[in-house]
Amino acid sequence: MDALKLFQEYMGTGLIVLWFLVSLLYLWLTEKRKYIRVMFLYVPLVLLLVFFNPLVAKIVSQMADGEIYYRILWLLPVTPVIAFGTVQLCGKLAGRKRYVGITLAIVLFTISGSLIYRNPNFQKAENAYHVPQSVVDICDTIEVPGREVMAAFPGELLQYVRQYSNVICMPYGRDIMVSKWTVQNDLYDVMEQEVIDAQELAELAREEACAYVILSEDKKLVGKMQNQEFEEFGRMHGYVIYKDSTVDLYYFMKE
Amino acid sequence: MIAVRLLWLAVLLVAIPAWVGNCFLNVDKPCRNPVFLWISGQMLLWAGFQVICVPVILLEGRMWMVTVAYCGFILVLLAAATVRYFRQSRTLRAVREAKPEKAEIILWVLSGVLLLVQLVLAVLMVYGDGDDAYYVAISAAAEESGRMYQKIPYTGMHTELDVRHGLAPFPIWIAWLAQMTGITTVIVAKTLVPVALISMTYGVFYLLGSRVLFAGEGAYRKKWALPAFLLCTEVLVLFGDYSYYTVENFMIARSRQGKAALGSILIPMIFFLLLTLLRKIQEEQKITVGFWVLLGSVMTACCLASTMGALLACMLVGTAGLCGAVSYRKWKLILPLIGCCIPCIVYAGMYLLLG
162-221 in B: which are within 8 Å (CB) of A? Predict the structure, then answer.
């Protein structure tokens, strides 16, 4: 684990961290109150030394996942120090100049940083659950009252299914999409192919005890799922839901 | 019905913590600031949840046991806070000396609007984060099946107890909120809890500004400074997506995850308390037992939020304690600070032994 590399990744463009260092310098020169000097100057500097200490890095990565070592940087009071430094600096200005100074500082922050809502992962919520409506509707369709149901979902829906419905079980989950975790599943591999052999899919789905298979309408099937005794159970939001017609999901109600 | 449930959630997230905060009335004397009471009360409640929940998880108990014990704990705290409230001598509260200036009002309005925008967007927008597949599913599983950390959240398969994550059961606290209110777990986790946690983050910044940075007499007490400080923090948070790792990114995008609460609420709260401590030392004020209980509670809450919370909290308090002791030549300061670190040391030890 390279602390310097982690620090560079944490900094992004580096401008906000630059303003942090400038604020530290300004407070070093101007701040008289000892308790603020201790917490806003000495502590961050010591913590930076700790972060770059290879011995600490080694111990922390042995105790926990080395990838979360960057969280030590959360101990740096970046936002409060920059905001405090800005207000102190603007406090030296009189009258309107003070508010012009604050405005300029805010403009500088907006240029230096990146608006969080412009992050491509941010999207308008489709519903109050904050999961795609397709997941909500598919889960509602395949749920069986009073029991769990095993279903194979395509990769793009995996992370949402069990957030919404805890009675839907899956033979593989979101962890399979994280390459470093090296989780492997034959059914998932088949589900992700552009052209899918219906017979192979049906056999693997039965091996995994899946009562349902959800496939994108864009996937090309070689052969028909109906020939493998999987009936088309529903079609919504660009997905086809196939149900294993050999499985009686309501058997426990008949006993 | 939905309105009643939302109201009940507000009671659990705001009213009860604010009243429990009366236990720390003498820490913030004579202000009795509602923001301080709310946040400090929530710290004590989180600490209690951690102390109650972890043993139940390790003994493979059920969710209802946590619910019963935690509700009992809340009732005891509410009673203690009520007694504390009525026993507290009535001191006069500070009053404003003069009307606020126009510029000050504008700064307050701007920071209020910016906060409101963030809260509305927390409800209307969603950040697709893969880690939710773990944390939210853990909450949903606990609420639905009563089993805690005994199912693989990604698939729903039964498994051995996940001790490593079970030592930081923030998702179980969310499950508890869902169970108490009857609102679907995923809505509580991803839509409603972020509103409370983002507000709490700015509450800590407010305390930092009003109680420490711009407190006292003379040049430091500038009326425009506090709203200007809050406005700057809000802009810095909003434009804090300069990398994937920043605490600001976690705060807005992944507020429902314990690690976000650790970085954006708990660590700043420790900063606030340590600044208050050093200020009291400088001004030779008495440091009450309540203060140490509050600091210990925040540190225990760090363990609830994330398994790394124990390490980070101890690192911060240890560094600040040493720097403070050297700067003020107050070596006695270190002993109670070590005392506050004990919960973190215990949970870190459990992590190393069992995790």
Answer: 184, 186-187, 189-191, 205, 208, 212-214, 219-220
